[in-house]
Specification:
This protein is α+β, with helices and mostly antiparallel strands and 530 residues long. Helices cover 45% and strands 11% of the residues.
Length: 530
């Protein structure tokens, strides 16, 4: 255990100080495709009863019109968060007819590219901007890749937590950094540790070892054939997070930026403003119609595909990096989690308990700066785990030496254990974090217990990745339909949907100026008047 981890654990180990751990927040964004009863991508528009995809705070769409995104409010406990997520699912199922929500991260059998409908957000300038951004994603990455679904885990620690750490770092008060800066640097340090150890999450929670052959659209690959319509890798944990998923030549050149918030912001702003020749050849318009927002490496900051992001809630007209520059980091967004096809809402409370423990460990432990070579090592450990994580004797690189994944995982679990104990002392339910840790340790000892191994076993038994996805989708649909929302809950979601539709209409009616000027203002960051 590092000296810093020991010191911070001791600092938090009394009732009053430990209570600040219960004041942090977590929220979930779950993406899921709408499919028809045969497991094909739904060809229908976003159900109007779910409200406006532009303005509903809890139900929207991601890339495709059929790719729903459910967003929970921020809560102090993951159990409450998952109850919220469950309710959103039940409301959606009451207004989807015979359609279902796809149970896996990798898509169902997809139609031709031209038949995948890009998400529509109405006629306002901001709604059109969101649609054109997605047109650009189609050009740059293809529509199939944009139909991949995931779980995003938003996590924050209370401001009091950062105040407590700042006051006990042994630095005289007159020499301490402003709390905003200390907190931002604390989150960036957390992200560095996440980079070091996130391979462990892919081993424990990766659930996409196989995919539909149609997903690749003829691309070259190194996958093996499991059946006529299914490709896989025998020891893969998450093909979604491999080079078959979110990858792009333009983004591959982005340099490491985990060492400071300034470096992160500078890197993204450079990518948003730096032209990329292949995109310049395409232009921003074709036959007078917008096809992408810009010809730069990134159209907007959110195009950067990262396993984790520093975040700040944005204000109207504000870009994400502007919010970070002005007010610092408020929370982190973990983006590498596969949808768990064995869980109706895509993630279990047990997984959430471990994530809370893991992320707090990353925040408390010593986190040295990462140079370019070390960054490559972390990326290679992650890449090897997503493609071969269950391979017996798989070696990862730690401190310039080779170590087996299992040995390193066991050592990490031992280091994380006191953090689980600390959280359990704070929590009302005794032992839940330690119990989750024990479940993860069993997966380390026996790879057959991992979600990826369980998925692959079921895919083999059914002979098809699509058949497995359809079966799980049917099971989950029955689970939600058998127990609809109480009338008061239904009314609450219906009211939220109605308000969102009215808000979209208000935005559209209030719009002034043409779209070309709107994009120019957005790209030059002048929408917020600064």
């Amino acid at each position: 255990m590092s000296n810093q981890l020991s010191r911070r654990l001791a600092l938090l180990d009394d009732d009053e100080r430990r209570s600040v751990l219960g004041e942090g927040l977590r929220g979930i964004e779950r993406e899921t495709l709408r499919v028809d009863p045969r497991g094909n991508l739904a060809a229908t528009m976003h159900p109007v009863a779910l409200g406006s995809a532009l303005t509903n705070p809890q139900i929207t769409t991601d890339y495709a019109e059929a790719l729903l995104e459910f967003i929970t409010p921020a809560e102090n406990d993951i159990g409450t968060t998952l109850n919220q997520l469950d309710a959103i699912h039940r409301f959606a199922y009451q207004h989807m007819g015979d359609e279902m929500l796809w149970s896996e991260s990798m898509p169902c059998e997809l139609p031709a590219e031209e038949d995948i409908e890009i998400a529509y957000y109405g006629t306002s300038n901001i709604g059109t901007l969101k649609n054109v951004y997605r047109r650009g994603l189609a050009l740059r990455y293809g529509k199939a890749m944009q139909c991949i679904a995931g779980i995003h885990y938003n996590y924050s620690l209370a401001e009091k937590f950062w105040q407590l750490l700042s006051a006990n770092e042994g630095i005289p008060e007159e020499r301490r950094r402003p709390l905003r800066d200390f907190q931002s640097e604390g989150y960036i340090a957390t992200i560095r540790n996440f980079r070091r150890y996130s391979w462990l999450l892919m081993y424990l929670f990766g659930a996409s070892p196989a995919l539909s052959k149609s997903f690749l659209r003829g691309r070259r690959h190194d996958l093996e054939t499991l059946s006529g319509d299914t490709l896989y890798l025998p020891y893969a944990t998450s093909l979604r997070m491999s080079d078959l998923g979110y990858q792009n030549a333009a983004q591959s050149g982005l340099t490491p930026h985990e060492n400071s918030l300034e470096s992160y912001v500078t890197t993204l702003m450079d990518a948003v403003n730096r032209p990329y020749a292949p995109y310049q050849e395409l232009g921003t318009k074709k036959d007078g119609e917008w096809i992408q927002l810009s010809t730069n490496v990134l159209q907007i900051e959110n195009e950067y595909y990262s396993t984790i992001r520093p975040k700040r809630v944005i204000r109207t007209g504000e870009r994400p990096v502007q919010a970070l520059c002005r007010r610092g980091v408020q929370y982190i967004e973990v983006r590498c989690l596969d949808v768990d096809p064995f869980e109706p809402v895509g993630i279990s409370v047990e997984t959430g308990r471990f994530l809370d423990t893991f992320l707090l460990f990353c925040a408390l432990d010593d986190s040295p700066l990462i140079d370019a070579i070390e960054s490559q090592v972390h990326a290679r450990n992650f890449a090897d785990t997503v493609k071969e994580g269950r391979k017996p004797g798989l070696m990862l690189t730690r401190g310039g030496e080779e170590v087996t994944l299992q040995d390193w995982a066991r050592e990490l679990m031992d280091r994380i254990r006191p953090v689980a104990a600390l959280l359990d002392e704070q929590h009302n339910e005794a032992g839940v974090h330690a119990a989750s840790l024990a479940v993860q340790e069993a997966k380390v000892a026996n790879p057959a217990l991992t979600p990826s191994a369980r998925v692959l076993e079921q895919v083999r038994a059914l002979g098809s990745s699509a058949a497995f996805g359809l079966r799980q989708s049917e099971l989950h649909a029955a689970y939600f339909r058998e127990s609809p929302l109480m009338p008061a809950e239904e009314a609450m979601f219906a009211e939220m949907a109605a308000v969102s539709l009215a808000e979209q209409a208000r935005i559209e009616q209030a719009d002034t100026g043409n779209f070309d000027d709107f994009v120019a203002a957005y790209n030059s960051s002048t929408l917020c008047g600064e």
